[in-house]
Amino acid sequence: VICVLAGGVGAARMLAGLVQVVPPGDITVVGNVGDDLVLHGLHISPDLDTVTYTLADQVDPERGWGLRDETWQAMDMVGRYGGVDWFNLGDRDLGTHLYRTHRLSEGASLSDVTAEIATAWQLGFRLLPVTDDPLRTRVTLAGGDEVSFQEYFVKLRHDVAVHSIRFVGAEEATPAPGVLEAILEAEAVVVAPSNPLVSIGPLLAVPGVEDAIRARRDDVVAVSPIVAGAALKGPADRLMADLGHEASVVGVARIYSPIAGTLVIDDADAALAPAVEAEGVRAVTTSTVMATPAVAAALAATVLGSVR
Ligand code: FO1
Asked: Fewer CB within a 10 Å sphere, N or C end of the chain?
């Protein structure tokens, strides 16, 4: 089994490559729930849904999140009443949140509902939330205000300086069923090209998870989400800089050194391979910009080849 630690868009793109080189039944994805929110009374799990919709080939290709061929009638109505309309929920996407919220209200766990949704889309691999307990990323802005992750990411368009982040509920959280086993029993553990701080960070914050990954360090390979000093999507570079890290593959290597024996970096950063290795992390250089599914498949093959 290959265990993949996943955030949102970048992770989903790599997974779309991985399922081309490994039978989906041999993959377990441990997904981030720190971006989750309750809005309009609905429980929304953006990273789990992005993985699900992408691997179901239903994701909107331009946005990278939400469903293709979407309509926005419900949100138009909410907007008409002056309701919360900065977080865009399409009419089809709302069906997912209606179902998830209903099942949770019946006492189902997030793991149960995530498995039901994955089965409905015939994903073929296991998608596990890192925890079934409440875990929410909150961002303290340079000005001192603390906001929810989605207020930072969407409402403020992550275009603000950040002072600090915290994962509320992490200390009390326990790994969801199967998470630790997946990490400890996997042939290889892959840290997807997600934001190290706010997508992978919440996973490591759940007690027991980081220790399990550290125990597998020699079989853990991370893919850098930073290419030539910039994030391909989202605020990873700025967040790393704001929080005192070098926004480069060397900065990523420093963050991941305790948990990953290998870091896959893009050809554009080949010259930094020695600096990565100076951090005690083996550097593997390849094309990591997944412009096409073929590149994603090649990246996945290289990632697996670097630990098998
Ligand atoms: N991202 C945006 O930039 N704007 C949105 O309005 C938005 C809505 C949204 C709705 C459902 C969903 O699953 C994801 C959504 N996202 C939106 C993306 C989301 O904020 C990010 O994908 C993750 O939280 C960060 O990886």
From this structure: C
d(CA 290, CA 288): 6
**Residues contacting ligand 1 via CB (< 6 Å):** 7-9, 35, 44, 46-47, 49-50, 65-66, 87-89, 93, 150, 153-154
From CA 192, how far away is CA 190, in angstroms rounded? 6
pLDDT score for 299: 97
- Residues 66 and 46: beta-carbon distance below 8 Å: no
Pairing of strands 126-129, 27-31: parallel
Other CB atoms within a 10 A radius of the CB of residue 304 amount to: 17
Rounded distance between C-alpha atoms, residue 146 and residue 141, angstroms: 6
How many angstroms is it from 195 CA to the middle of ligand 1? 14
- Please say if the pLDDT value at position 8 is more than 90: yes
Dihedral sign (CA 186, 190, 195, 201): positive
* Structural contact between residues 226 and 237, judged by C-beta atoms closer than 8 angstroms: yes
